[in-house]
Amino acid sequence: MSANASARRNRGLAAIGALLAAGAVALAAYAAHGAEGLAQARLQTAAAFAFGHGLALAALAGHAERLLDRTALYLLLAGSVLFCGGVVAGTLFGTGSVVAPLGGGLLIAGWLLHAVGAVRG
User: C-alpha dihedral over 8, 14, 17, 19, to 10 degrees?
Assistant: First the structure.
């Protein structure tokens, strides 16, 4: 793959991370002002996870030069969407959060893979 294609992909991941963080801020605002009780707590949890992982994607994408590094970031992205999306959908629409555990597993796998990449240098 060319250096330009890799750089474009990394910029795309960084942009997606920033959008995820922005969405998390909006979700936190909704949780604070439009939800109560258990729904508020669940939405705040989803917002915290989305913000943290969006920030991680935005910060780490520029350094993802190897396939291992990019794979870790894609796992974080997929995990964030499934975990946070599952929690939000379950809370707002009563659909249950059946995909949230899968998302959580992908988040864990992404961070473990990132750790392996960091150790390998």
Answer: -70
Q: Which long-range contacts (CB under 8 A, 24 or more apart) does 101-106 make?
A: 103/78, 103/79, 104/79, 105/79, 106/75, 106/76, 106/78, 106/79, 106/82
pTM given for the model: 0.94
Measured CA to CA, the distance from residue 114 to residue 108 in angstroms comes to 10
pLDDT tens for each residue of 75-113: 999 999 999 999 999 999 999 889 999 999 999 999 999
CA–CA separation, 52 and 90 (whole Å): 21
Q: What is the DSSP string of 71-97?
A: HHHHHHHHHHHHHHHHHHHHHHH----
Q: Give the whole-angstrom CA distance, residue 10 versus residue 50.
A: 19
